[in-house]
What we know:
Layout (H helix, E strand, L loop, with lengths): L1 H23 L6 H7 L4 H7 L3 H25 L4 H15 L4 H7 L10 H7 L3 H18 L11 H14 L6 H17 L13
Amino acid sequence: MASTRSRQRRELFLEQGTKLISRYGFRDVSVEEIARACSMSVGSFYKYFHGKEDFYEEILDRMEREGIRKADQIVSRLSSPVSKLKAVYRFIVLGVRQYPILRGLLIRDEKSLYPGFEARLRRGDGVRAHIENLLVEILKEGGRRGIFRTGLYNSASTMVISMLDTIIAHMDDPDVDDLISDILVLLQRGLRRVIRIRRRDERRD
């Protein structure tokens, strides 16, 4: 009974903390406010977590695992590399919008950052790194199947990841959907066709 109650209290801290940090950001939410939202003491908080950063890391771990699961689920439903590519880019905007904390980390919003942020990035096991790996795997699949002509480029993977950065940078723009559509057209045509530029003096038949 005691262990069940302890787990429930711990989950309550994580649930209420997620709500508060999603709304106000990591920096603007104190341990006292989290404890108050749970109708518990600050001492109870420290019974389950070493500190605020440790607490935040656990929230992020859960969110990133869920984000990765959803991204994989979306891609696994599709057979065409082109459709998979489209799905991954749209997931960044539509899917991540459901998680304000992850969105804040992706766009490097000051309210969402914390002292361990750079170390977390270097671990390479978060949503951002997973999305990059998905894009690279989709490119390889498209190349194997003869759908993408990745050999035309010095680094097709760098190109598609740069497009990802562009979408992330404009995630909150009102016309981001148009941007995604344009990027997808550009990538689809650029990866599937050879673009041949005719010399000015070349004869046209």
